[in-house]
Amino acid sequence: MIDEMRIFTGSTHPALALEVCDYLKIPPGKSEVFKFSNENTFVRVLENVRGRDVFIIQPTSSPVNDSLMELLIFIDTVKRASADRITAVIPYYGYGRSDKKDQPRVPITARLVADLITTAGADRVLTMDLHAGQIQGFFNIPVDELTALYSLRDYFRNKGWGNLTVVATDIGISKRARDLAHMLNSPLAIIEKRRLGNNDNTETLNVIGDVSGRRVLTMDDEIDTAGSLVSAALALNELGASEIYSCCTHPIFSGSAIERIASCPVKEVVVTNTVPLLGERQLEKIIVLSVAPLIGEAIYRIHTGQSIGTMFK
Asked: Which tops the pLDDT comparison, 29 or 204?
């Protein structure tokens, strides 16, 4: 039955797609993706997909607009080639932070992207740790959301730590952080902060919970410029935390993020490979966990009609 499946990759993160194919013990689908001299993206599938169950792996990470457009064109390509079902595998959902109108006259771009993916011809979406749960409701097609929570739990549980407090870097991530704290049998603290304008600057206001003399683990869904991480680490350091660790699912690492992480008091930052990391592995304090087995298992279960939810029980 697995012979009916085809997995293709865009140009954003082929390494992850190859890991997924290795997990499933199937070769990646043959295709070519490039830009013409006028910057128009071109996609061609080099094998028969008629009547096949097709999965296209493409995080919409940097360059975000190119990655998104390439995904849409890829979906249209296999749709016109008569694929039976098309699943867009989007480990990182770009524009996910634009999920509501929190200011006058601003877009809800996460909804717009959902409409584009559906209109292009996707029958299903497989993603990981969305910035906001309501994004699933932006789609009129099935959405399966995986989580890196259990991979992070296993990593930190194996350290055998006591005296640990899990810290949510803002109120929005507190439910997920609470789940991790429960898994690690640790108390939860929450950092209250406010965002200053639209330029990713934040100001830490208050730490709710006791961190003095304790080892702390901050959690967020993504690290972008690392401004929130650094301000949180400095606040926790001032409150007497003995050691500071951090984790997230999506290591976006924009701008000077790596330099900020290197110089801040965080001892270790544990992330996953939902987006390509380029040379960031060279920074010893950044630990990368692979989500390929998780995505591969989810793809297999979608293909064979099995439950995704039971993966996490």
From this structure: 29
Instruction: Tell me the sheet residues that pair with 191.
Output: 207
Read off φ and ψ for residue 8, nearest 5 degrees. -115, 160
User: How far, in whole angstroms, is CA 216 from its chain's centroid?
Assistant: 23
Residue 305: half-sphere exposure toward Cβ, Cα within 13 Å: 1
CATH 3.40.50.2020 is held by the domain 149-289: yes
Residue 216 makes CB contacts below 8 A (sequence gap 6+) with 164, 165, 166, 167, 189, 236, 241, 243, 244, 245
Nearest one of 252, 190, 245 to 227, comparing CA atoms:
252
Nearest to 274 by CA among 125, 122, 127, 109: 127
Which helix (H) or strand (E) covers residue 59, if one does?
none
Catalytic residue among 79, 193, 285, 313: 193
Hey, what CATH class is 2-147+292-312 in?
Answer: alpha beta
Confidence of residue 108 (pLDDT cuts 50, 70, 90): very high
Residue 9: strand pairing partners: 57
Question: pTM higher than 0.90, yes or no?
Answer: yes
Residue with tokens 């509501």: 100
What are the backbone angles phi and psi of residue 307, rounded to the nearest 5°? -75, 135
Q: What residue ranges of the chain are covered by domains with CATH 3.40.50.2020?
A: 2-147+292-312, 149-289
Residue 101 appears among annotated catalytic residues = no
281, pLDDT greater than 60: no
One-letter identity of residue 168: A
> How far, in Å, CA of 311 to CA of 217, rounded?
25
Only one residue has tokens 């001299």, namely 37
Q: What three-state secondary structure class fits 299?
A: helix
**Token pair listed for 70:** 């390439």
Cα separation, 145 vs 308, whole angstroms: 9
SS3 81: coil
